[in-house]
Amino acid sequence: MSVLDFLGKEILYFDGAMGTRLQAAGMKPGELPEVWNITHGDVVAEIHASYVKAGANILKSNTFGANALKMQGSGYTVEEAVLAAFANARKGFQKANETGQPDSVISDSASRSFSEISGSLQGKASGAGIASSDFIKKAPGQFIALDLGPTGKLLAPYGDLQFEEAVALYAETVRAGVKAKADLILVETMSDTYEAKAAILAAKENSDLPVFVSFTFDKDGKLLNGADVETAVLMAEGLGADAVGFNCGLGPDLVARLMPRARVVTELPLIANPNAGLPVEKEGKTVFTTGPEEFAEYMLDVYREGGAVLGGCCGTDPDYIRLLAARTQGQKPIAAQRHRAVTAVTGYGAPVYFDKMPVLIGERINPTGKPLLKEALRNGDMDYICRLGLEQLDHGAHILDVNTGLPGLDERETLSKAVTHLQAITPAPLEIDTSHYEAMENALRLYNGKPLLNSVNGKPESMEQVFPLAKKYGAAVVGLCLDETGIPDSAEGRLAIAEKIIATAADYGIDKKDILIDPLALTVSTDSRNPAIDLAVIKALKEKGIHTVMGVSNISFGLPNRDAVNSTFFAMSLAAGLSSAIMNPQSERMMEAYRSFCALSGADEGCKEFVARYANAPKAKNAAAVSEYTLYDAIVKGLTEQSGAATVKLLEEKNAPLDIINQYIIPALNTVGEGFGKKTLFLPQLLMAADAAKASFDELKKQMQAGDGSGEPGDTIVLAVVKGDIHDIGKNIVKVLWENYGYHVVDLGKDVPPQSVVEAVEKHHAKLVGLTALMTTTVASMEDTISELRKNTDTKILVGGAVMTKEYADAIGADGYAPDAVAAVDYANKIFKEK
Q1: What's the pTM value of the predicted model, to 2 decimals?
Q2: pLDDT the model gives residue 131
């Protein structure tokens, strides 16, 4: 039987922490846990067995970091580490089964036979506890999950790991897991939806195994890239995850608070593998704040909120799992309450829902009738496209339509570039607008989030091409009311096509909640019946619970004073039940119609948004033309080319470089930093603003090198990831921001011994050292490094990282703690000068 036969029918139990248990068994800082699968297989197997005896029936393979990036230089291949990991997990089940285990983890009705893996590692692992006899059968109802953790790299455009490279890294591990006879794949500890997508695609494209996905959120329910709970869950569900949920980062109390948000947008079974609270130092050891009893009590709340797959992460041991299993023994998963299916799309920010209020889709990124956009596309000027998008969002668009179809250009390339560039500077959802199937697939693949796809129609060819792509990549789809016979001239004819599209989508496994029907507005100037047909289609679909979308402005084609016609028809369509409109948000008449409708219909409760927009407001002005962004605005919005151009203009106007830095660059970075602190801006915007600032600095450096003489060397900071830790995402982010604030950063890289940090401080006379650590197993190295710095230098020491807290920083002797990169900048500014 498959794990899917149990999922949602009885509670499944994951195991707890592996890394801290290995550390307790003697694993040194810097050693790879995955290598211990081969060199200390019996130790790993014994840890697995202890969890099975405690009540776990799903073991996570010790492969969290088994990818080519992390295994490089280890002396072993990814496949060798994975095969050994599964041998150890099976041996763990065997040990536990021989000595007895809780009956609650085995279903009486389950039966399954398991194949044995050939002894491909016998030669290499001789004497290391790995032999063909270790590949034993498990009891029915016991499963081993191929554990896929983060790569440790930021994906482009914010880092240097390309999306397809990430997919390839995960694919190699998945293929090894298939060879090892994995029962399921667990994609866990994901703090970036884009990396999660890469892992899920790798799992789906290289296996037919069930896929579970769990994310690591902060206390506010945000991922590192700014995605919230609902966005992450919607994307994972769309990509075909079988279960979704939470792990690491938070204790069980905070996970229980976030569970209801997931249940609102999905009926998938929910996973909860929280930490044992937060790590602190006690008597020279790292301990966690939540004990087994308290953990188990909180996990009861997690269960009541819908947890169907329960276990632990950092700091949890068999005692935690034993009490968790005991507290929930005999219980069945609480079925998700049936709710109205949610229709939503996302970028990497908050979702846009079609169920709450009418949605505005900005239409301006479409070259039809736009000579400047055509020129920009031919020149590859993505900065211009980004500015078009930002203008529409500033004027109230919720989603941006992106169409780059232009004769003579490679639409596959231009559409993908436009999508990736827009997503670099805005978390808003995009509507991928193309009839070119190859361009469609590439853009869907590279998209970060759950996209809106425009479009499919009732022609068999269209549905055969589009629906498989929409299903694979989890897109919501616009269905056009036309087929091989054309566009019907009656509401009944168009409704018949809509029904055909919805029924065919269902055959591909696409729910009607993910279909939005476009009745197709045809100009009233050629047939006065056209508006009435559209309104009738909208009303009929509204009654059936089907969402609609329409390009409103087509109704006025060929007429004068088009804005008047468009805005009136828009209001009529909204009154008929139109869910969303593809329109120009920079048309004040259209926006007046929209805001008035929302106020009158109750969508704008208490008319709050209407009053905020119009009370005591001067006559609305159009957005600044794309060429009028100031340097400050260009940096805040993350526009690198515009930032460089604005800097050149300021220099030509005889502004001194230091004046430009102090009057434009630093204030802009401060604004972004404040937004980051208030959770109105997130890591992607922070990094793109830093890139824009760098583009400005590059222009200033040219001026300074030409002999301006106004530059001065910045204060020096030494930065390092401590010994044993190879995760440098946080370090790299801090480095970028410090450099943009004018500091000279000596970057020692990752896995840096304490003495190397001391030597760098002495060599560069650094007044500040920044130390980071991601893994629980390496915080001891941070304390050792601080101790060596105290013995040999008088430098200030700032620490940060996923496992670090203010209390822990104080306990190990750091001078300061930075929960994020902006806090690191604030600390440096206080140490050196007010900036």
Answers
A1: 0.88
A2: 41
Cα(744)–Cα(717) distance, integer angstroms = 6
The model's confidence at residue 623, banded by pLDDT at 50, 70 and 90, is very low
Number of CB atoms found within 10 A of residue 77's CB: 15
Residues facing 186 on adjacent strands: 147, 212
Determine the straight-line distance between the first and last CA of the chain, rounded to whole angstroms. Answer: 63
Tokens at 552, concatenated: 């409103």
Burial code (b: 16+ CB inside 10 Å, e: under 16) for 445-477 equals: bbbbbbbbbbbbbbbeebbebbbebbbbbbbbb
Amino acid making up residue 460: P
Within 8 A by CB and 6+ apart from 785, the residues are 720, 722, 723, 752, 754, 757, 771
Examine the pLDDT at 118 and tell me if it is beyond 70: no
Q: What is the pLDDT of residue 116?
A: 34
823: CB partners within 8 A, 6+ apart: 677, 800, 817
Tokens of 734: 């801090």
pLDDT tens digit sequence for 349-369? 999 999 989 999 999 999 999
pLDDT attached to residue 122:
36
Backbone angles phi, psi at 99, to 5 degrees: -100, 0
Residues 6+ apart with CB under 8 A from 215: 189, 190, 191, 196, 223, 229, 232, 236, 244, 245, 246, 247
Residue-wise pLDDT for 226-243, tens only, equals 999 999 999 999 999 999
Q: Show the CA angle centred on residue 91, arms to residues 90 and 95, nearest 5°.
A: 120
- Lowest-pLDDT choice from 4-18, 406-420, 585-599, 813-827: 813-827
Q: What are phi and psi of 742, to 5 degrees?
A: 95, 5
For residue 14, pLDDT beyond 50 = yes
pLDDT at 109: 30
| Statement: residue 205 has pLDDT above 90 | yes
At residue 52 the predicted structure's pLDDT band, cuts being 50, 70 and 90, is very high
Bond from prior residue into 318 cis (ω within 30 degrees of 0):
no
Which residues, other chains included, contact 610 with Cβ-Cβ below 8 Å and sequence gap of 6+? 595, 596, 598, 599, 604
pLDDT of residue 376: 96
**Per residue, what are the HEC states of 206-258?**
HCCCCEEEEECCCCCCECCCCCEHHHHHHHHHHCCCCEEEEECCCCHHHHHHH
Structure tokens at 99: 């000595």
DSSP 418-474: HHHHHHHH--S-EEEE-S-HHHHHHHHHH-SS--EEEEEESSHHHHHHHHHHHHHHT
Nearest C-alpha neighbor of 781 from the set 57, 30, 154, 8: 30
Spatial neighbors of 365 by CB under 8 A, at least 6 apart, are: 373, 385, 388, 389, 400, 401, 402, 403, 404, 418
Residue 360's closest CA among 391, 389, 400, 394?
400
Is pLDDT of 21 > 60? yes
Is the Cβ–Cβ distance between 183 and 2 less than 8 Å? Answer: yes
- Considering only CA atoms, which of 169, 253, 245, 183 is closest in space to residue 214? 245
* Token pair belonging to 785: 């490094």
Longest CA pairwise span in the chain (Å): 87
- Specify whether the CB–CB gap between 446 and 416 falls below 8 A: yes
> So what's the pLDDT on residue 618?
64
Query: Over the stretch 749-798, which tens digit does the pLDDT of each residue have?
Result: 988 999 999 999 999 999 999 999 877 667 778 899 999 999 999 999 99
pLDDT of the residue at 306: 94
* Other beta carbons within 10 Å of 337: 9
Q: Are the CB atoms for 237 and 473 separated by under 8 Å?
A: no
Burial of 75 (0-12, 13-18, 19+ CB in 10 A): exposed
Amino acid identity at 401: D
Scanning the structure block, which residue is given the tokens 């119609």?
593
